[in-house]
Amino acid sequence: MADDLRERNKKAAEKQKKHSEKAEKHQEIAEKINSADPKELRKQLSNKNEEYVFKLNKWLVDDDFTEAEAEESINNLLPEIVSNQIKGIPANQLYGPVSKKAGDIAHPVKPKKKTPFWALSIDTSLLFFALFSVLYGVVGLTSKKANPQNQTGIITLILLAAMWGVLLTWFNLQMRKPKAERPGLLLTIGYLGAGLIIMFVFLGLMELVPSSINPALNGIVYLVLAVVAYGGRFLYRRFMGIKTRAFI
To answer: What ranges does the record list as Basic and acidic residues composition bias (predicted)?
Structure first.
């Protein structure tokens, strides 16, 4: 029994040693390829890859690249081409058709700029400000008596819209993540519940603020603010380059 265990351990150690040696060899080859002169790398190309490189050069020159620019662009690809060639992966399989790779080099697609959380929160807050302003405006115009309650005051409106903007933006970002990266359903509900509780507490506290500080405005004024906020949001989205919707 002990002999069998020693034998298995010995085989495992030998296997591990072979893996380490293989990894070191691959690393050594990769370093040699990356530091090699492009002329030397071109000599190592297979006939298939050599033809691919020749056609790629022609496509780039036809697309207004100078010979020097086309050569430099291809030289940057050679280490990757040769490395994959060793693995049995030709350039046309690695990059696709020559026309596609030439287009990628000549007309690279700029990566989409990620909009920061604060910018998305402002966008959503402006939307809620407009919605709440419409609501308060309609209530103000349809009510027989003016509503003096502080929770309809302008400061309440601004802070409430800001809180909804932050909460809904966070929720949207979580829902747009891959399923494996999303927080659990119970955790998400817990966060939303905590956010709603904070808002209700906030509304209760705002009742203590005197109307001289937090005045309730005329219904028409609220409607005007709604139009201004929505128009401002349109300009803000264009300025910040925001393309995503405020809601899923």
So the answer is: 1-31
Crossing angle of helices 67-86 and 2-35, rounded to 10°:
170
Whether 145 and 41 map to the same domain: the answer is no
Collapsing DSSP to helix, strand or coil, 159 comes out as: helix
Q: Are 206 and 151 in contact (CB under 8 A)?
A: yes
Overall average pLDDT of the 147-154 stretch: 58
pTM: 0.55
Angstrom distance (rounded) from CA 152 to CA 206: 9
| 28 within domain boundaries | yes
- Print the domain residue range for 25: 17-106
Buried b (16+ CB within 10 A) or exposed e, 123-137: bbbbbbbbebbbebb
Hey, what are 163's tokens? 């809180």
Range with the poorest average pLDDT among 6-10, 85-89, 212-216 = 6-10
pLDDT at 122 over 80: yes
